[in-house]
Amino acid sequence: MSKNKELFSWVKTIVVAIIIAFIIRAFLFTNYIVEGDSMLPTMHNGDRLIVNKIGYKIFKPERFDIVVFHANENVDYIKRVIGLPGDQIEYKNDILYINGEQYDEPYLDELKQSFDGLFTYNFTTEEIIGQKTVPENTVFVLGDNRQDSADSRIIGVIPYDNIVGEVNIKYWPLSDLHFYH
Fold first, then answer.
1. Distances in Å between the alpha carbon of 40 and those of 9, 18, 37, 53?
2. What's the pTM?
3. Tens digit of each residue's pLDDT (9 = 90 or more) over 13-63
4. Which of 61, 69, 111, 149 has the smallest C-beta neighbourhood within 10 Å, fewest atoms?
5. pLDDT beyond 70 at 89
6. Could you give the residue numbers annotated as active site?
7. Per mean pLDDT, which range of 36-40, 51-55, 130-134, 163-167 is the poorest?
8. Domain 3-179 is classified in which CATH homologous superfamily?
9. Where is the Peptidase S26 domain (predicted)?
């Protein structure tokens, strides 16, 4: 093979690889770096994640998914989906009730043990968003670090259209490698 043909082959391979990487990044997956402590102890400031952008184009978010969403034009947040459309959320004495049914939140155990008093203050959906239930095409989200999280208790429900995607992998630091459903 001549040097020109070999060079052309390499250039073609590199261009195809760049196009494939662009498609994957633009439409399927993206990297995300956690900023802040609102998801402690599940995620820490500086953790690096892979976010699945395509999944919610096909399926709806599920309860307890960890999602990245546009909080405003300039900022993305990462939180846990607690309420789905039609859900009535209530927190009473540090216990989560959804539609009157009690739910365990084992991901909070570590922080709750080190906290004196109510870790999540009492509230109902109606007190927070002015409606008894989570509206259609929105989700109610909370940070795992309930004492330090700007979540639906402050910013309201999150429209589906604002959700970037679901966190699938925490890949950095490598010692904390974790796959989420």
1. 48, 35, 5, 23
2. 0.85
3. 887 777 766 666 556 678 899 999 999 999 999 999 999 998 888 899 999
4. 111
5. yes
6. 38, 79
7. 51-55
8. Umud Fragment, subunit A (2.10.109.10)
9. 8-172
